[in-house]
Specification:
Elements: E1 2-6, H1 11-27, E2 32-38, H2 43-46, E3 54-57, H3 70-91, E4 95-98, H4 104-113, E5 118-122, H5 129-134, E6 140-143, E7 157-159, H6 164-170, E8 186-191, H7 198-207, E9 216-221, E10 239-242, H8 249-252, E11 257-260, H9 264-273, E12 277-279, H10 289-299, E13 304-305, H11 315-324, H12 327-340, H13 345-358
Parallel strand pairs: 1-2, 1-4, 2-3, 4-5, 5-6, 6-7, 8-9, 8-11, 9-10, 11-12, 12-13
Length: about 350
C-alpha cells in the first residue's frame, strides 16, 4: 500500500496518525509512506524520528481576531494546494489520509480533486473547522466519538474510535517501583500533558500539603518546562513529582484514578484502559473542544469533571477522596468505559481504507 498521510499542530493529531501508520505496517509490511506536515509545528520534529519520509508545506490556521492576517492564510492555502497536487502526482498513492490539523486542508482537497481515495479522521466530539470543510470532499470519514457522527455526511461516516486506544492496550506495564511507589497502595496519576499547565502547577503547589497522610499515593507530572520550580518544594512522602513520563500508558495501566486534561487521544487511552478519571478540560483550546470531549464521557457516566475555575482550596483533594472511596461509583465508571471503548480502532480504520482502495 502506498499512503500519503497528513496531520499536524498537536500530538492529538500526530499520534493517531502514527498509530494508523503502525497498523498499516503491521498488516502490509512493504507499504510506502509520505507524511505531509507544517513547516513550523511539532510534527517536523516527531515524524522524522520514526523514519517516515516527510515533506512540509507552509500553512497557517485562520485567525479569529486579527482578520487581516487571513490574507496570508488564504494565499498559503492556495500555494499549498498547488504544491500538494505536485507531491501527490509524484508519489501516486493508493490513498490519502488526513488526521486533523489545518495542514490537512490543502492535502485532502488536492487529493480529492485529483481523484484519489481519501479518508479523514476526527478525534474530538465536536468536529474541527478543517474536517467540516473536508467532509464534503473526503471519500470516507472516521469519528472517535459516536455522538459526533451526526455532524458529518451520513453514508460515508463510520464510528472507528481513536487509533491511539489500540496502541495503549499493546504497551507493556511499568513497575511502580521505578517512581518510588508502592504496589500495596492505590495510585492517583495527575498529568496535564507533556508541557503541563502553569495554572494547575501553581494550584498543586498550594494544595500539596493536603495529600499528607492519605492512604493513597500521588504521581504528579509537572511538564518538561516546569519541573525546576518544584525542586525546592517539600512534598509529603506519598507524593512523587516527575517532569515527564515517556509512554505514559505504561504507568496508566497501574493507575487507580487519573486526573488529566480532556484531549481526544488521552480520553481514548483512558477509555481503552477503563481508568476512572477526573477531567479538568483546558479552557484555552479552540471551540472549547476539551470541555465538549469531557462532557461526552460525563454524560455517559464514564468520568467526573472538575472545571479549572473550580480549583480552589481543597476542591481537588475532595474530588479525589470522594471518588476513590466510592467503590460502587468506580465499578460503574469502569463498566461504562468498557461500553464506550473501541479496542480495535486502528484495525477498523485499516480494514475500511483497504476496502476503499480495493473499490477504486
Amino acid at each position: 500500500m502506498k499512503v500519503i498521510i497528513s496531520a499536524g499542530g498537536t500530538g492529538g493529531h500526530i499520534y493517531p496518525a502514527l498509530a494508523i501508520i503502525n497498523k498499516i505496517k503491521e498488516k502490509e509490511p512493504n507499504s510506502e509512506f509520505l507524511y505531509i506536515g507544517t513547516h513550523n509545528r511539532m510534527e517536523k520534529d516527531i515524524v522524522p524520528k520514526h523514519n517516515i519520509p516527510f515533506k512540509t508545506i507552509e500553512i497557517y490556521g485562520f485567525y479569529r481576531k486579527r482578520i487581516y492576517r487571513n490574507v496570508k492564510t488564504i494565499k498559503c492555502f492556495i500555494n499549498g494546494y498547488r504544491e500538494c497536487k505536485k507531491i501527490i502526482k509524484g508519489f501516486n498513492p493508493d490513498i490519502v489520509i488526513g488526521v486533523g490539523g489545518y495542514v490537512t486542508g490543502p492535502v485532502i482537497y488536492a487529493a480529492s480533486k485529483l481523484g484519489y481515495p481519501t479518508f479523514i479522521h476526527e478525534q474530538n466530539s465536536i468536529p474541527g473547522k478543517c474536517n467540516k470543510f473536508l467532509s464534503k470532499h473526503a471519500s470516507l470519514i472516521g469519528v472517535s466519538f459516536e455522538s459526533s457522527a451526526k455532524d458529518f455526511p451520513q453514508g460515508k461516516t463510520i464510528f472507528t474510535g481513536n487509533p491511539c486506544s489500540e496502541d495503549a492496550l499493546k504497551k507493556p506495564e511499568i513497575a511502580k517501583s521505578e517512581f518510588g511507589l508502592s504496589d500495596s497502595k492505590k495510585l492517583i496519576l495527575i498529568v496535564m500533558g507533556s508541557l503541563g499547565s502553569s495554572k494547575i502547577n501553581n494550584f498543586f503547589k498550594e494544595s500539596i500539603s493536603m495529600f499528607k497522610n492519605k492512604d493513597y499515593e500521588v504521581l504528579y507530572v509537572t511538564g518538561k518546562d516546569s519541573y525546576d520550580s518544584f525542586k525546592k518544594l517539600k512534598a509529603p512522602n506519598n507524593v512523587k513529582i516527575v517532569p515527564y513520563i515517556e509512554n505514559m500508558t505504561r504507568i496508566m495501566k497501574k493507575t487507580d484514578i487519573i486526573v488529566s486534561r480532556a484531549g481526544a487521544s488521552t480520553l481514548s487511552e483512558i477509555t481503552a484502559l477503563n481508568i476512572p478519571s477526573i477531567l479538568i478540560p483546558s479552557p484555552y483550546v479552540p471551540d472549547n473542544h476539551q470541555f465538549k470531549n469531557a462532557m461526552d464521557l460525563v454524560n455517559n457516566g464514564s468520568a467526573v469533571m472538575l472545571e479549572e475555575t473550580e480549583l480552589k482550596g481543597d476542591a481537588l483533594v475532595r474530588t479525589i477522596d470522594a471518588l476513590i472511596n466510592d467503590s460502587g461509583k468506580i465499578k460503574k465508571i469502569r463498566s461504562n468505559l468498557k461500553k464506550m471503548s473501541v479496542p480495535n480502532s486502528a484495525t477498523l480504520i485499516y480494514d475500511n481504507i483497504r476496502r476503499l482502495i480495493d473499490r477504486k
